[in-house]
């Protein structure tokens, strides 16, 4: 088994190396002229670009004393991370500074010393995939669906009763399933005027894949789990706000199904969760080591805000 574990980690290390070598090669602009939109059109072709955006809400009252521009993006608490990856390439994407936006409401410099402060009451903070909602509300996923996931919550009770502690998810797995290059919405019923309001359905096989099962972290049994039932993920305790400043949420994305030419999408076979039963905590540390070496999102671009 030890030899098998070592081989598994070698494979994972190779995956990380491939991801490190891949950087975002196209401009942030990722409209229908250069990318597919699987929730509608154009449909997706293996190897071509896909419009992929994640968004979250910054902590209420967030204030950065170093930003004096009245047009500061923090006047709008919705923060968008935009990517333009290739369909069917296993890739990891960093939501840079997302933990800070979710939990810190003030930074300041006094006598050459940096000070940071958690918000007085940390709220549950979610990351959502834009355009991955139900059939009647495609743009914004509804609560308690697989396209929306908790990344920050109050950690007092799970972090040694530290009153200011937070729990942070820094590693997520997201899957995209396509049928002939588009999403399918089984059971969806379109609304008809004066007849029915319609029935919303979630895109099949799409969304965040939980890294916790039954309240147990599958990547490292020592880590707590947070999130809504059925969509829980491994988290870490942070008791000092300064430790959160440079943290990043990383999302690994893989693909399943077929593209618009009927070709089978293959990257799902390399989904990081496939390796957890072999290497346990080693998988978590190996994958997480690539945090600062893969694609970073372009956040706060007004033209891409949902």
What does this structure look like?
The chain is an alpha+beta fold and 306 residues long. The chain has one domain (2-67, 77-297). Helix content is 12%, strand content 27%. The chain contains 4 helices and 19 strands. It has helices spanning 2-21, 98-103, 276-279, 281-288, and strands at residues 52-57, 63-64, 78-83, 91-96, 104-110, 113-118, 125-129, 148-154, 166-168, 171-178, 207-209, 212-213, 216-217, 225-226, 233-234, 236-238, 248-257, 295-296, 298-299. The strands form 5 sheets. Strands 16-9-8-7-1-3-19 form a 7-stranded antiparallel beta sheet. A hairpin with a 2-residue loop joins strand 5 (104-110) and strand 6. Helix 1 packs parallel to helix 4. The termini are far apart.
Topology:
Blueprint: H1 2-21, E1 52-57, E2 63-64, E3 78-83, E4 91-96, H2 98-103, E5 104-110, E6 113-118, E7 125-129, E8 148-154, E9 166-168, E10 171-178, E11 207-209, E12 212-213, E13 216-217, E14 225-226, E15 233-234, E16 236-238, E17 248-257, H3 276-279, H4 281-288, E18 295-296, E19 298-299
Signal peptide: 1-26
Keywords: Signal
Protein name: Membrane-associated protein
